[in-house]
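job 3f2a | input accepted
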Amino acid sequence: MRSRSAAACAAGLVVLLAAACSKGSSASTPTPTGPRPSTTAHVQILSPTNGQVVRGGTVQINVALTGAKIVRATSRNIRPDQGHLHVYLDNQIVGMNFGLTDTVGGVKPGLHILRVEFVASDHLPFNPRVFTSVTFEDKS
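job 3f2a | predicted structure (140 res):
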């Protein structure tokens, strides 16, 4: 009975984390309760490039990450050289990535801002934050 309760609690935590990072969530990040670690990581959006025109309502994203590696585990044991990527389109989170590529669909015609942030394993930002952004246009 005790292990079933622990499993239910763990499943609830996974659901809450997934909801917090799912498509359509607010772009705001939870406020950390203590000082945040720094990192030597650097993130760069390789594509789309700044000012690029895309068509078809889909954008392919390629990112370079240096000074750290992406890990799949969610943990409160924060390491400055481990984390994952949060992808934002027009200030709305559209992906939580454990890789350096992604495809974002449903992009409406017009100008857009794509932002990618390297975050710690607890989904919270490093201090200072590690992100970059580009502007692109969809001409579907």
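job 3f2a | Residues 1-29 have pLDDT under 50 and may be disordered.
job 3f2a | closed
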